[in-house]
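Lab notebook, bench 4. Continuing the backlog of folding jobs that were queued last week. Each job is logged with the same field layout so the records can be merged later without manual cleanup. Today's entry covers DUF1295 domain-containing protein, a 247-residue chain. Filled in by technician R.K.

JOB TYPE: sequence-to-structure
TARGET: DUF1295 domain-containing protein
LENGTH: 247
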Amino acid sequence: MSLVWTALAVTVLIVATFAVAIRRARFDTIDSVWGLGFAVIAVVSCVMSAGSPGWRVLVTGLTVVWGLRLSVHIATRNHGAREDRRYARMRRHPGRIFVRVYLAQGVLMWVISLPVQVAQLATPSLGLVIVGIAVWLLGFVFEAIGDLQLLRFRRTSGSGVLDTGLWRYTRHPNYFGDACVWWGLYLLACHSWLAALTIVAPLVITALLAKGSGKPVLEQDLLQRRPAYADYILRTSGFFPLPSRRK
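JOB STATUS: finished
OUTPUT FIELD FOLLOWS
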């Protein structure tokens, strides 16, 4: 039953966000709501589920902390900046943006959050709990530090390529961290074989980040704007952190 309530909550959030975007005349508003959407789903699922209260609060807390941090980061990054060119190109077709971007992201939020929703129902084995929280923590730290390093780099350097800190070991520490967060939350959902089927969620988010709308799209844009990025690709891992291949 909670799955229905979370779907309704996502729908309301997406419609409200689109209305705000129309009023602001900035369709990249959805980017700032991406993390918030998962937090909303987690809270609604927590309230509507019947599992152990302490366990539900833990799973919800991990999701909310991750989601709110991401939303605040993206909102801060976008404040005062130009709207993403992908949204600007679709500006004349708001209906298309609503369906292809806003509704599509709403569906993705709901699907990717399935482990969080299922995890509310029961507690897995202690071993999975420990490993799940450890993987979540690794991902959260990687994503948060990676985002902070990139934000500082953009504020202090108008050009060039960030290849220090975590960015020395992977071209996308924030994406790698994001994927780890969801693999960690998935492990917290594995209290039964049926719950384990929610593996579709971390698989989807990892594929999107590494092969879909994340890494490939961003790198294509960076290669056009920053020639030095080609050399950075040759010596730095694309996703998983590995030692830099220094020349």
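OBSERVATION: The chain has a mean pLDDT of 91.
SIGNED: R.K.
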